[in-house]
């Protein structure tokens, strides 16, 4: 708790820098990741992430320093090279893209690990901390590192804003983009470059092994919540930023703990929650929809029962007891009571000495359900040639979902009928 | 019956297109007149879409060239418009109907520039022409096949081009949409636009088009509809594949031979 207050009061300048850095990195790679995801190149991000490791090591071996700019250049070069190799293999051989990605990823990463081990064995004092690039360490994001990575992150965000229109079209319909004269090759190159940069800036905080998750997961989570690309970009950035802060906090309170796995766990948790809770697309929303349908069916069945009783006795004006209702239809007593009480609250029923009476509105709704039921039975016998003793079950469901427009069409197509197949009057 | 025209809108010269070295179109020589509603017709696998895509420079060609308004494609981007096959894009993209139609203005806008108010007016007008104005804010993932096709058409209309290349605009749409589209295409033709349509239904072809291109891996015929749609030419187009031609094509692929000796 003490750590928590200390961290989030941001009194320590270092904490401020580390947090700012993590937020920038995570947000910028999440925004670029949206386009990578929409272009269906998610796996490519993973390949790039693994392929920057040999570049970082090579840059260190050649320069002998951990100057972030030099390491960035090294990372950029091999990240880019890996994409070129993937493209080359795919276009010049029968090897498919997924295979090429798998090959390149493992070869580049293997070489990277080899180099890293070699560097560590030289005993060069400057090399300590280079292994942080594997799983990330947000707490080391200070000073020169912060400036270097921060500048690139801001540039990424600016590029996405400037090229928003072009990138969107590239992801949605590449062939069309070409026919209106857009430099598609150049735009592809741009998106690839942005992807490589997004990976490169993230490796300090998250590490090469898990960087792909930082690129793709916020975008995938954001997609659940919205159908608008601009909103999706902002949401992905926010999700990225949140996990960035969380990662920085973990890294600050437990310096020996690698940051990457923590950030990835948090962002994955958000993705899973999005999957469950998002409106419309989410899992809970679907269950709610099913429940709503169920109560609606129950309520309409009760109104229908009361209406049918009125029809039977030629008397809509008297109240009926619960027993009378359940005699005609097998509804669990408790469920029926809940439904009746709810209908009373909604103004469709009145309670008269523990008996139930339809209000004018309730009668109207009950009549409509009965009408739809009989119309549908008639439709099935006339247009689908079903036997009249087979249509009842079907109409039991359909009576609840027919819209007023469809009702009108149904009446017209059946030529304003009076009687249903069982010779009951259609009200 | 291959009729060549003076001052063609589209000129295709000795065009050969291959997939994986196997030629699917052999030496097409074709000219199309201005202000015509042109149907490109042939059996499945005849290379109809390939021809349109090659004209749009979307595929590498093994030989030949395409000129539009007597210029290479690069110079006339602003005067042409392409309607790809509906299935060529992922409709589960986070965009609204209006967003997609607005893309029709991107060509005129050029890079970097944001769509202006005038572009939005033009997009809305295009949506009205296809009868989809009330769907402007609808998500494209919620559209039916016919509605998707109308949206693509509206995007092309928003371009205000002179020549339209449409890849199977009638595939898998309902009757109402088909009627609406053909009326719109006729209107465009009457305004002097040239509309080139890949079409798979022979029945409606004679009614829809005033110029027909019959295709089956090679050009069988090109000319006014009443002169082209006859028993003999249709038999040549649909009467079985040219097995020898596709055998030679297979051979080119297996031996990794170029379709043309490079000079």
Provide a compact summary of the structure.
The complex is a heterodimer of chains A (427) and B (263). Chain A has 19 helices and 2 strands.
Give structural notes.
The complex is a heterodimer of chains A (427) and B (263). A two-stranded antiparallel ribbon of chain A has the order 1-2. Chain A has helices spanning 2-8, 13-38, 42-63, 68-92, 97-122, 132-135, 143-162, 164-172, 174-179, 184-206, 211-225, 229-253, 259-277, 283-313, 322-328, 333-345, 360-383, 392-398, 404-413; strands at residues 349-352, 355-358. Chain A contains 19 helices and 2 strands. Chain A has 2 domains: 2-281, ABC transporter involved in vitamin B12 uptake, BtuC, CATH 1.10.3470.10; 285-427, Winged helix-like DNA-binding domain superfamily/Winged helix DNA-binding domain (Arc Repressor Mutant, subunit A, Orthogonal Bundle). With 263 residues, chain B is α/β, with parallel strands linked by helices. Chain B has one domain: P-loop containing nucleotide triphosphate hydrolases (Rossmann fold). Chain B is 35% helix and 23% strand. Chain B has helices spanning 48-55, 97-102, 106-109, 117-129, 145-157, 175-190, 202-208, 225-228, 231-238, 243-254, and strands spanning 10-19, 22-32, 37-41, 63-68, 71-72, 80-83, 163-166, 194-199, 211-216, 218-224. In chain B, the strands form 2 sheets. Chain B has a 6-stranded mixed sheet with strand order 6-7-8-3-9-10, sandwiched between helices. A 4-stranded antiparallel sheet of chain B has the order 2-1-4-5. In chain B, helix 4 packs across helix 5 (145-157). Chain A: It is a multi-pass membrane protein. Chain A: InterPro entries: ABC_BtuC-like, ABC_TroCD, Fe_dep_repressor, Fe_dep_repressor_sf, Iron_dep_repressor, WH-like_DNA-bd_sf. Chain A: This is Manganese/zinc/iron transport system permease protein.
